[in-house]
């Protein structure tokens, strides 16, 4: 064994990406934000005024653009061809349409395959909805993060405020519930806790608490690798 793979799944705003980034930094391994890839595609679909429900048209967009996750000094950036869309993909219009795009089977097939390629021959921590169940079914460690809807809405509210993204708490809570429902009930690889995933309720945990808990779970693999 010369690599470690860590899958982090869970509903919206449970803290997946924040914690995954910390883990990647601590272990010196790659972080892959799979949600950002679905968001980037959604951004482009909206830019081109395509109906998110039209799978064929959405696939035409996906086939003609290059979505890249690029590590820069200030963190991970998301590029569509050479355009930096890191901020734009977090806006409410993209958030409102992303689940409609992520439900298409052709889209998922393409994304899952790209994500598996990114993880090939590397130590990775990857977060999303179907990482433990579909993308990395043999991951060494699978975590399913949850938190109450009201706590998640509060977290997203604070985050949006800091980023200058318009938001109100009630709307965010409804939006999170709606997206969780769409993601959990879609036919193709829905949001689901993999059978062998460890569930962590983060409602009353800090980011550092969650990071430490996951690193503790990873300890046997970390020791074998000698990376910490
Ligand atoms: O950060 P947040 O939890 O709001 O969402 P995200 O991780 O950026 O994911 C945005 C959307 O992409 C989700 O609501 C899903 O519809 C979709 N997604 C997915 O279907 N599968 C993944 N592995 C990751 C995201
Ligand atoms: O990736 P996901 O949508 O699951 O969540 P996130 O974007 O990592 O976290 C949403 C917000 O909650 C961020 O602003 C985090 O700083 C915050 N957070 C928190 O306050 N406490 C935690 N235990 C985890 C995340």
UniProtKB/TrEMBL annotation:
GO biological process assignments: nucleobase-containing small molecule interconversion; pyrimidine nucleotide metabolic process
Residues engaged in binding ATP: 10-18
Top-level lineage group: Bacteria
GO cellular component entries: cytosol
Assigned keywords, A-Z: ATP-binding, Cytoplasm, Kinase, Nucleotide-binding, Transferase
Listed EC numbers: 2.7.4.25
Cytidylate kinase domain: residues covered: 6-218
Reaction equations catalysed: CMP + ATP = CDP + ADP; dCMP + ATP = dCDP + ADP
Compartments it resides in: Cytoplasm
Record has Cytoplasm as a keyword: yes
Residue stretches spanning the membrane: none
Pfam families in alphabetical order: Cytidylate_kin
GO molecular function, one term: CMP kinase activity
Protein family according to the UniProt entry: Belongs to the cytidylate kinase family. Type 1 subfamily.
Stated name of the protein: Cytidylate kinase
Annotated gene: cmk
